[in-house]
């Protein structure tokens, strides 16, 4: 429903000759970025597993996207990104694997980005109400312990605590409390293991020489989640997503309340209010109000 809100309102425009030199193309690309951000905001309100098995595409399917840009002349830099997503749905079992690679070089030709992300998401439906889930994530930063990769405004101290590896694996049961044409509410709880490998900077108090060590940590975390959806009518629906993650390191709570309006075939609005609580920071709670409007004609 959120996708139908945004889809018809975004329009494609042609850029006239001469637009590159006059700066029109740059402004147009920024306009596209804003449109993409609004579309992403609407897409976040969707939930592919909201109504359980049988509502998604079956079989094996996926997508791959690649982007590259390189510059020479006054500046020499390049940026590369590759993302891929592979899904397999069969009856009561649904799973997805995702991969993201990022590589970049700054204006001096030095590597400033070298990151890898892998995600895994699976659900198996025991019956119409009960299901089991598994969540996995792995991220790596190839420059987290590289002194030569520091930017001009960074020091060795900036490497302290930077994560070289960050992995999480969690699993548990879920239950659909309500599941009908107008309202869907599911809750799930599970246990997970998080592994981190961070860079530790040690400075000798006498010689002031800095050395780098690895600091690895493994901890158990527990997660509780709730996904609520209610359609008031064909034009208005509400969502409320809540997650609570607790471990020895800290407690993290996020809640996003969203209200979506389809005022006309060409006009859609989404209003969201997001709260994030992290127990071990000085100001523990952040609140964000988001408003997205889409109008096409």
Unreliable parts: none
The first-to-last residue Cα distance is 19 Å
Order of helices and strands: HHHEEEEEEEEEEEE
Q: Give the mean pLDDT.
A: 85
DSSP strand content:
over 45%
Number of strands: 12
Percent helix range = 10-25%
**What would you report as the Rg, rounded to the nearest angstrom?**
23 Å
Strand order of the largest sheet: 1-2-3-4-5-6-7-8-9-10-11-12
Work out the count of structural domains.
Answer: 2
- Count of DSSP-assigned helices: 3
Biggest sheet features? 12 strands, antiparallel
Task: State the shape.
Answer: globular
Q: Assembly state here?
A: single chain
Structural class by secondary-structure content: mainly beta
Pfam families: DUF481
Protein name: DUF481 domain-containing protein
InterPro entries: DUF481 (IPR007433)
Record the SSE blueprint.
Layout: H1 2-7, H2 19-22, H3 24-44, E1 59-71, E2 77-90, E3 93-105, E4 111-125, E5 130-141, E6 163-179, E7 183-203, E8 210-231, E9 236-247, E10 251-262, E11 267-278, E12 285-295
Antiparallel strand pairs: 1-2, 2-3, 3-4, 4-5, 5-6, 6-7, 7-8, 8-9, 9-10, 10-11, 11-12
